[in-house]
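Why do we bother with holo predictions? Because pocket geometry can differ from the apo form. Keep that in mind while you read this record for 2-acetamido-2-deoxy-beta-D-glucopyranose.
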Amino acid sequence: MILFISVYFMLSSLLAFGQDLPPYEPCDLAYRLEQRGDFCFWHSSNDGAVGQMNFFEANQQCQLRGAKLATPNTQDIAEWFQLRQDVVGRRQRDYWIGGLDEPWRNGSYYWLDGTPWDQAHANNFWAVGEPSGPPNHCIALAGRDEIVKGYWDDRHCYNDDLDFICQRERRRVCTCSENESKFCDIGFGCTSFRVCESGLVITVQCAPGEVADSVNQTCAPANEVQAPCGQLRSCAGFGNASVPIYDNMCHTYYRCENDQWQEELDCPEGEIWDEIRQSCESVESTCEPCGHSSTTPDGSPCPGPRIPNIKL
Ligand SMILES: *[C@@H]1O[C@H](CO)[C@@H](O)[C@H](O)[C@H]1NC(C)=O
Ligand SMILES: *[C@@H]1O[C@H](CO)[C@@H](O)[C@H](O)[C@H]1NC(C)=O
Ligand SMILES: *[C@@H]1O[C@H](CO)[C@@H](O)[C@H](O)[C@H]1NC(C)=O
Ligand SMILES: *[C@@H]1O[C@H](CO)[C@@H](O)[C@H](O)[C@H]1NC(C)=O
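The structure, written out:
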């Protein structure tokens, strides 16, 4: 359902130079986003209704808002985060950010959003004595005490008592040329989107309970919409495999058929989905990060999850 539609005049005059991208817009204050450089940041602690959670759930929560876990890979952003921790860190909590290492990557860290890992930069921001290594694989921004506040600490990915910080590149002004119809972008929070319709910018606000669907250019219930805004994961490249849902600690999984999403299924109580064996198995015998084993049942190193279902 469309609650209301607001029409703005053509913004093409804002395009200062022929080939340049349109200018950035300010971050949306309705979501209490904070602007730094070309990015908008959102602390989960800004919203009292959002609780603490594990790394994968936090990543999912950012995705559902059309954002990602934060990537403080520049000196400027990382230092700003340290200053910010003086304010938000009063809660003495740690915040997930979007970096992790996985055993099968031989201990090298990476950012979920694909930003290259800069080891020299990271060395400046690890708290003293960190990273402590396995079984800790996910990076948090410490908010605990003056010594480590704002520095990075590797934590167990399934610690479920952390806040988190989402990040999204600032939106650019939506520009339409004469008579043009096209999809522009989704608003932070996934509750609105913008299109050009016959040369006019239209903002469509979704009804409560619905999210923006960029594929169909409409609003629909989340269980009918593709990720990131909706709950339908991408099955591209998975063929007929069933894939664990990391944010549910792999207690649920989804079934793909010919690269198409089919359904979400539950494992029996106490078991998790093992992507290698393609069956529900015990936590002890299943590969990390969902399970506790660092080797497959035949003794070879865990191959690692196929990341697309947590990274977009
Ligand atoms: C990790 O190290 C092993 C053994 O040196 C090597 O075979 C494997 O390719 C490495 N994996 C990655 C992701 O670099
Ligand atoms: C836009 O549409 C009007 C009315 O159909 C038409 O006269 C005009 O040529 C169109 N402009 C462009 C750039 O296509
Ligand atoms: C979106 O479009 C596809 C076909 O293009 C259709 O299968 C799907 O049901 C549509 N989703 C919604 C929510 O309308
Ligand atoms: C998936 O299974 C169907 C039959 O259910 C089969 O026709 C198809 O070739 C399989 N696709 C892949 C990629 O294995």
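The chain is about 10% helix and 30% strand.
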